[in-house]
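Example 3.2
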Amino acid sequence: MKVLGVNGASSKLYLGVVGDNGPELVDPPALEVGTGGEGGLSLIALRSECDHALARIAPDLVVILDPESNAKLTWKAAMPRLSAETVLVCAATAAGIPVERVTRPFVRSACSFGRSGSLASHAKDRYPDPVGPYWAGKRDLAALAAVSRHGDA
């Protein structure tokens, strides 16, 4: 089984793939919605990137990690992430790939992490060696989201 984990931050979706042997290199490591006045065109371009990434990665499941619950985001700051996640959900659904959202407490529980320490610190303990670019605090959290639903947590 191959699970694609997604950790959104601002306008980027950081990707972490977990297969039967643990985290794998992924290309691309992140997807990003463009900025500017063309808004809709950026979303269409992102949809195309999502389609290509999903075809290359061929996951059995896409798991999106919810943001920190204590995050104090404005609507303007949250909109790029929400838009990018929505586009990815649409692309995965069109490709017949199931999508789930997981909370950070769910990931902690599924991975048998204690309540103390940040999820990023637990990720560093579990995966001390980076698996490609944008790993620490970004793709490592996506990998934890993926492993929480992979069954090998």
